[in-house]
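Sanity check record (used in CI):
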Amino acid sequence: MLKQETDKLELKAKLFRGFGDMTRLSILESIIDEEKTVTDISQKVKQSQSNVSNHLSCLLECGLVKIRKDGKNRFYSIGDKRVVKLLKQGDDILSDIADGIYSCVNYKK
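Expected output for Transcriptional regulator, ArsR family:
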């Protein structure tokens, strides 16, 4: 495989790691329709604010979320509308193959 192809695959794998963690995925799903503060997100995903903040930093750094500051408040939202599309396509795919994914022994929690 050419180095350029390998680099692209590695970058794509890194992109999908953002979606591969259950907490990060929950965070993305929680802001799919509207921006939220860390407090709102942590309540929605039932995680501590510090844990959510750490994951948001990761998602922010890689461009999956964006931030809007308003005084002391920081509001997080999806960074690119294609992320919303990808999350919704994931739901569509799952509607067809959820049983196979659920029973797959190679995909561990």
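Residues 81-103 form the longest helix (23 residues). If this sentence no longer matches the regenerated tokens, the check is flagged for review.
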